[in-house]
Structures are given as structure tokens and as C-alpha cells.
Amino acid sequence: MDKSHYIIRGGVEGRERLRILSRLMRPTSLDLLQRAGIRPGMACLEVGCGGGDLAFDLARMVSPGGRVVATEIDEIKLDIARREAEAQQISNIEFKLADVTQDELEQEFDLVHARFVLTHLPTPEHALTRMRRALRPGGIVAVEDIDFRGYFCHPDCGAVRRYVDLYTQTVRRRGGDPNIGPRLPALLSGAGFEAVQMNVVQQAGTSGEVKLITPITMENIAEAVVAEGFASQAEIDEIVAELYAFARNPSSVLSMPRFVEAWGRRPTA
Ligand SMILES: C[S@@+](CC[C@H](N)C(=O)[O-])C[C@H]1O[C@@H](n2cnc3c(N)ncnc32)[C@H](O)[C@@H]1O
């Protein structure tokens, strides 16, 4: 399966980063799913599920009677997710190796969700068309994605500016859009969804994981940044050290990217 468009380290280390990201995102993602209309009994598709944290929540939200299919292109993350689902005794979930840009899922779902996946795809419109086809008429789509232009910090920090610059350039070079967030409503409408709505989420803080996710992400994109020739490993090591120092300083403020949520329905007719 082709993973060359994806700039963030996969496998076990990538899964550990996603665990932190999922803890940060959990409250707003669950709110989004409630607002979009998730209910017990539904069949849900989680696209690009990563380590499966949100898929586990989905499986609990649709119980009793509902089920979740969670897809991913990274087999190592899928294996970890299967083991964790078993350990958490979640039985109404199935993890599948599938690329949203290529593989059709021959099933009808009530709800399809994707978080931080469309940003990495050269043609997110094609993925959304596949997601629409995977829904029954009247089924719900909910997506969440980033706008890297929303990053901010106080006081000004050169390492944060350089990180935003390197992340942005590298995602673009691999064909993605690091600022896809505000495009989501139009992308959903263009893919044939109706009753499209949106919401903006911005997280920032003075301590904890909301700040640490920035140096952790810099470490996890280093390989792609170096491979694309945007920085040397030596420069990245310096940026990572500065970002950790900035994140651990209780008098500094550091945000995450701006997040845009969008949701809608597949038309009934
Ligand atoms: C930033 S991670 C987000 C993971 C998870 N959705 C979350 O929010 O915790 C993006 C995930 O999408 C997966 N991915 C990338 N391209 C994909 C594709 N074409 N089809 C399915 N999954 C893909 C990556 O392997 C990665 O695990």
C-alpha cells in the first residue's frame, strides 16, 4: 500500500503520538459526533483510524446494536489497534487495511468520520466521493481537519515559526494541503453532501500535552522533511530542543493548528 504521501512517522512511534493527539481531541470530536447525530445501533466507518482511539469511542457510542469498521493504510497501527480493542473488550469493531483513495467498501454505513486524513491526500474530493458512496441515503458524514495558518504562540518563537514553515512545505510537497480546514464545507458540498455545517476549534495552553504535541510532531516529521531537502537533521535537532524548551516554559503560550469540523448528509433521493 502506498504511504509515500503521508509525512508523519508511522508504526509504533507514530501510534504513540496519535495517542496524545487523541487525548487532546477527544472532547471536541465526541461533541462533533453528537451534534452530527450519532446514535446507538448505527453502523459507522472510521477512515484513516490511526491507533483506533476514536474508533473505540465510536464503538461504545453505537452500542448496543451498532458496529464500527475502522480503516487504515498502516498495518502496524492496525495490529496495535486490534490488540487494544481486544484488551478493552470492544467486540463491535473491525479493523481493515484499506486506502480511502483506492478501495471501495462494499457496505452501507449510517455515519462516516475522518479526522486529519483529508489534509494528506492529493485529491480529497475523490476520498469524499468514496465516503459518500459508502453511506446509505440520508447517512451522515463528519470530518475534522487542520488549518496550519492558525498556529500561534506568545512570546514570538523562531522555532515555532520554522516548524510551521517546515510542516507546511513538506505536506505541500507530498501533495497534501496543510490549510485544508476552511475548504471542508465546499469539499463536502462538491462531493454531493447536503445540509453542510461547520465549526471551528482552537486549542492552546501554558502547560501539558497541548504544548508538547508540537515538538513531538516535529520529531515525527523529521524523516520526511530531511528527505525533501527542506532542513538538515542537525537543524531539526536544534528546532526540536528549542520547541521542548518553549513548551516546558510555564510562562509561554503555544497553540495547536486551527481545526475545522464539517458535517452533512448524503441526500435521500
Ligand atoms: C494524522 S493521522 C490521524 C489518525 C486518526 N484519524 C486520529 O485522528 O487519531 C492520519 C492517518 O491517516 C492514515 N492515512 C493516510 N493516508 C490514508 C489513506 N489514503 N487511506 C486511509 N488512511 C490513510 C495514516 O496512516 C494515519 O494513520
Please describe the topology of this protein.
Elements: H1 11-36, E1 43-47, H2 53-61, E2 67-72, H3 75-87, E3 93-97, E4 109-115, H4 124-133, E5 135-147, E6 153-154, H5 158-173, H6 184-190, E7 194-205, H7 209-227, H8 233-248, E8 253-265
Parallel strand pairs: 1-2, 1-4, 2-3, 4-5
Antiparallel strand pairs: 5-8, 6-8, 7-8
Helix pairs in contact: 1-3, 1-7, 5-7, 5-8, 7-8
Bound molecules: S-adenosylmethionine.
S-adenosylmethionine binds at residues 6, 8, 10, 18, 21-22, 47-50, 53-54, 71-74, 77, 99-101, 115-117, 120-121.
Describe the structure.
The chain is an alpha/beta fold and about 270 residues long. The chain has a single domain, classed as 3-Layer(aba) Sandwich (Rossmann fold). The protein contains eight helices and eight strands, in the order αβαβαββαββααβααβ. Strands 1, 2, 3, 4, 5, 6, 7 and 8 form an eight-stranded mixed beta sheet that branches. Helix 2 links the parallel strand 1 (about 45) and strand 2. Helix 1 packs across helix 3, helix 1 packs across helix 7 (about 210-225) and helix 5 (about 160-175) crosses helix 8 (about 235-250). It is globular. Bound molecules: S-adenosylmethionine. S-adenosylmethionine binds near residues 10, 53, 72 and 100.
